[in-house]
Amino acid sequence: MKRKLAIGIFLFFLLPATSGLAQELTIISEDSPPFNFIKDGVLTGSSTEVVREILHRLDYKDDIQVMTWARAYHLALTQPNVVLFSTARTKEREHLFHWVGPIYKVRFGFYARKGSGPYLPCLADAKKVGAIATYKDDVREQLLKSLGFTNLDSSKSPASNLKKLLSGRVDLWLYSNLGVPSVAGQIGIDPNDVELVLPFKDMYAYIAISKGTPQAVAKKWQAALDDMKREGSFERISQQWLPEESIPKFRPVMAKSAIASLKLKIFTEDSPPSNYLDNGKLKGVSVEIVREILRRLKLPDNIQTVPWARGYTLAMTQSNVALFSTTRLPQREKLFKWVGPLYSQIWGFYARKDSAIQISSLEDAKTVSRIGTYHKDAKEQYLLANGFRNLVSTNKNLSNIRHIMDGTIDLWVSSNFNMPYLARQAGIDPDQLKLIFPFKRVENYIAFSIQSADSLVNLWQQILDEIKEDGTYNRVCTE
After folding, report:
1. In the structure, how many helices (H) and strands (E) does the chain have?
2. CB neighbours (10 Å) of residue 125?
3. DSSP state at residue 169
């Protein structure tokens, strides 16, 4: 009798813990292509099919409901046993849900009508435009409000925001690289009618499970998703709708305790404002970000400043070398392993303010007599790959400013990010130079030598992502 009673008591206390896993879940999403959308009366998309596979593996019923984002989000906040996808994971939302993912990476940015967009060197400049179209209560709108933006034109429809942009009722539209083509297709517009004028933020999307749901449910969902990533089904599903760079991989990271024995060498150059020497002290946006990574990894600050050509050669030929800031280009893609992005910039041809030179294409620039470039710099490599034979290369970029002012060269290749700082460093007022023609937007990364372990590179990327998510990155960039 006592044995039966003991078993009965054991089962009584066991039931709540196990029944929570078996109970029904309310699975909800919104209409947001290419992640979740209705086609020919059937719900599909990259996130939808991933969730369907998880439901199948865990023996849950496939009964996904589609509703407006505001209603779905409210249900996930207030009701137990609710699964909501796809949900951007932010610092503000972190404690509101159990998280399963990531299921894709998206890049938020400011879009303008092609050829008519305002010049936006940095985020602060976006606050000065007349109006920015945003999606009501969306994470992008919430982020701008948290940053003090007051020029937002909110709408409940991304399609109406695109129409406002094209009609000139707003100056910019804040949306994502993956969503723009789908919204344009909905209203019969060529996606190329708009252009990205300022990247804003990279963000990962997750499956959000309401806090009233047992945490064991979220753990089982995460384990199922991790299994899908390990054996390749996650990537096979996702690549039907998403580009490769937007599909998160299952990437093992190196233990922080193991990194100290690697004797990692870290190089940069004197190139303001990213990385530069000020009275013998190394400063700059990229320097501070790399220092924060080193601090979080409990590694010494052993960054060395070297000429760019030397740093590039060392990263190409030695193991465990990190070089920053390095422009990521197609021709360099397989030469290094990449961590970033650290920032973006616009390349262009600069001339003296009184110059009469006019060009409107790269082909026009090939007819100019002498264009000053920085030896082995990404901009020089890009122009050489595009058939330029009129380049005058120098080992010191500051020499180009003196040469443009004394007429030794006709144009100088620089960027909106570097030009003002380099001009001042050379003792020249930046207003004495003018942008003749911008020709390419690029992003700069930390480049690791190809011999570096993937787990090391993955760890650095993970730490950088954390720096961006917790607000440290924005604080460094605005100081």
Report:
1. 18, 20
2. 14
3. S
Q: Where are the beta strands (DSSP E) in 80-144?
A: 82-88, 97-113, 132-135
Query: What is the b/e burial string over 338-366, where b = at least 16 CB atoms within 10 angstroms of the residue's CB?
Result: bbbbbbbbbbbbbbbeeeebebeebeebe
Q: What kind and span of H or E run contains 285?
A: helix 285-296
Report phi then psi at 43, rounded to 5.
-75, 130
Structure tokens at 3: 């044995």
- Token match 């929570």: residue? 20
| Peptide bond preceding 86 in cis form (omega within 30 of 0) | yes
Contacts of 124 (CB under 8 A, 6+ apart): 478
Do 398 and 439 form a contact (C-beta atoms < 8 A)?
no
Cα–Cα separations (whole angstroms), residue 291 to 284, 358, 455: 10, 42, 20
If you classify domain 257-479 with CATH, what class do you get? alpha beta
- Is the predicted pLDDT of residue 2 greater than 70, yes or no? no
Q: Please check whether residue 345 is in contact with residue 378, taking contact to mean a CB–CB distance below 8 angstroms.
A: no
Ranges 24-28, 88-92, 257-261, 406-410: which has the least confidence:
257-261
The domain spans of the chain are 2-104+206-246, 106-203, 257-479
Residue 21 has pLDDT above 70, yes or no: no
Edge-to-edge, what's the strand order for the sheet holding 152-155?
64-66, 26-29, 82-88, 194-210, 97-113, 172-176, 132-135, 152-155
Give the Cα separation of 93 and 72 in Å (integer).
15
| Residue 15 in this model has a pLDDT that exceeds 50 | no
Which residues, 6+ apart, have CB-to-CB distance to 110 below 8 Å? 120, 126, 132, 172, 173, 174, 196, 197, 198, 200
Q: What residue type is assigned to position 339 of the chain?
A: V
For 313, residues 6+ apart whose C-beta sits below 8 A from its C-beta are none
How far apart CA 29 and CA 383 sit, in angstroms, is 46
SS3 (DSSP) at 122: coil
What topology is assigned to 2-104+206-246 in CATH? D-Maltodextrin-Binding Protein; domain 2 (3.40.190)
Q: Is the distance from CB of 474 to CB of 316 less than 8 angstroms? A: no
DSSP-based helix, strand, coil % in the chain, nearest 5: 40, 30, 30
User: What's residue 23's pLDDT?
Assistant: 61
Using DSSP's 3-state secondary structure scheme, residue 153 falls into: strand
E strand residue ranges, 353-427 = 371-374, 391-394, 411-415
* Helices 215-231 + 46-57 axis angle, to 10: 110
Question: Do the bridges between strand 336-352 and strand 433-449 make them parallel or antiparallel, or are there none, so unpaired?
Answer: antiparallel
Residue type, 290: V
- Which CATH number is 106-203 given? 3.40.190.10
Beta bridge partners of 154: 134
The pLDDT of residue 8:
42
The two domains 106-203 and 257-479 share their CATH topology (first three levels equal): yes
Assess contact for 303 and 321: CB atoms under 8 A: no
